[in-house]
Amino acid sequence: MEEYKKLEQAVYFLKNQGIKSPEIGIVLGTGLGKLTDLIEIEKTIDYREIPNFPLSTVEFHSGKLIYGTLGDKKVLAMQGRFHMYEGYSASEVVFPIRVLKMLGVKFMVLTNAAGGINLSYEKGQLILIDDHINLLLDNPLIGRNIDKLGVRFPDMSAPYSNSGNELLMAVAEAFDYNLQNGVYAAVIGPNLETRAEYRFLKTIGADLVGMSTVPEVIAANHMNLPCVAISIVTDLCDPDNLEEANIGDIIANAGIGEKILIKLIPSFLQKLKV
After folding, report:
1. Is the full-model pTM beyond 0.90?
2. Residues 67, 104: contact at Cβ < 8 Å?
């Protein structure tokens, strides 16, 4: 079936479920599900119910679409995202982002857990993504362009909303939180990187490394959907003092950053004009 028709089927289903006029789309990364506790939830829909939606296979991604109000904004939150290491193509990974845009979402907020290449970072620290490097060897725009979504050659000179980033920095400052920014490199995973790979990533200008977000941002830019993205540093990637990865520690460190994140995001949305 043609890709756009698959998108239309998902959109038609969700509208019939009562999803009307969402303004903000939110993608919740690994260990970052508590933001949903702040949403006045009107509807929760399991991904498996939505026509053509991928299914999350990751233990820490619950796979639910949550619709409701956060502050004064109607939001659609993805509690669980998709990754290429699960076997999905980049185009399949961004299917939900395209659906959100077609439902009416005007701004995206993306979050993720990431490794800290920049050794000035600390575990549990929030980093605002300013730019990215795509090392996934795939791109959601490969293949026939979907003209109804966007142009063949979208500009990526500012993939993350400048005004959105400035507002987030101001909100963080009001909370007396030092929100730094950095460059995020996306790799396919699911294994973590070797010492030599961490050295390579630092050399090419990466401050953070993770396995998501970049395809979603590319798709958002293709559709002229402005976005911001925040990483929580869950482990430090010092090739000269590399510790064995521990998923329990990674989730615990995500929880540290999440406590700040759930303060910043509602305040940011309150001030955001869409």
Report:
1. yes
2. no
